[in-house]
């Protein structure tokens, strides 16, 4: 498995953000990582990308432990965080060249050209990032994430700020990337999950309440939309059922 998480726990003082979660992810499928705000999604992604350490438990990426081999983990991961950090004074192509230099990419110009085409930045490549719309800044962030051709992609709200036409293009790109890479996609947009994901994990209050193939999850709730299923599993007052009671972990 490209990603393996076992009994992962993260405490912030007296608050437990993650309570012993376990899951795996492999190449060839796009994994939707879902949950309400404050459920523990971002904490999990920050641990997997070596931004913060866990309190206990294990996590590895492509066989590299996130605590013991953080540099190796970072070499195989492309990460687009929710709050996309960019050098606003750089030009788009210049910024991509800078990322290439960091990763010591040999075929620098060819790779930049390829990624610019993939992310639809052709007409924006000679503009300053600070002059771009939110949607195009998001594309630059995605371009930076895929530039070193990582084995694993972790994408947090990748279509935030994009118009409907742009969303279609980025979703298509994510599906294409998911055929050969391990992709974890975090989003609040259920239509995006249905359009892109093969498997879903739903986390609530630091615990996994569903870990299932998307079609299998739908079959267990044939009369509910994915949005209704999400609400059912993340709100114990909704229909009187919790994720554990639903038997989906």
What does the secondary structure layout of this molecule look like, with pairings?
Layout: E1 3-12, E2 15-25, E3 30-34, H1 41-48, E4 56-61, E5 64-65, H2 70-76, E6 77-80, H3 92-103, H4 108-119, H5 134-146, E7 152-156, H6 164-178, E8 182-186, H7 190-196, E9 199-204, E10 207-213, H8 214-220, H9 226-234, H10 243-246
Parallel strand pairs: 3-8, 3-9, 6-7, 7-8
Antiparallel strand pairs: 1-2, 1-4, 4-5, 9-10
Helix pairs in contact: 3-4, 4-5
What does this structure look like?
By secondary structure, the protein is of the alpha/beta class. It has a single domain, classed as Rossmann fold. Helix content is 38%, strand content 24%. The chain contains ten helices and ten strands. The protein has helices at 41-48, 70-76, 92-103, 108-119, 134-146, 164-178, 190-196, 214-220, 226-234, 243-246; strands spanning 3-12, 15-25, 30-34, 56-61, 64-65, 77-80, 152-156, 182-186, 199-204, 207-213. The strands form two sheets. It has a six-stranded mixed sheet, sandwiched between helices. β1 and β2 (15-25) form a beta hairpin. α3 (92-103) packs across α4 (108-119) and α4 packs across α5 (134-146). 40% of the residues are buried. The model is unreliable at 237-249 (pLDDT under 50).
Q: What count of domains describes the coordinates? A: 1
SSE pattern: EEEHEEHEHHHEHEHEEHHH
CATH topology-level name: Rossmann fold
CATH H-level superfamily: P-loop containing nucleotide triphosphate hydrolases
Number of strands: 10
The count of helical stretches stands at 10
Q: Keywords for this structure?
A:
249 residues, alpha/beta, Rossmann fold, four-stranded antiparallel sheet, globular, disordered C terminus
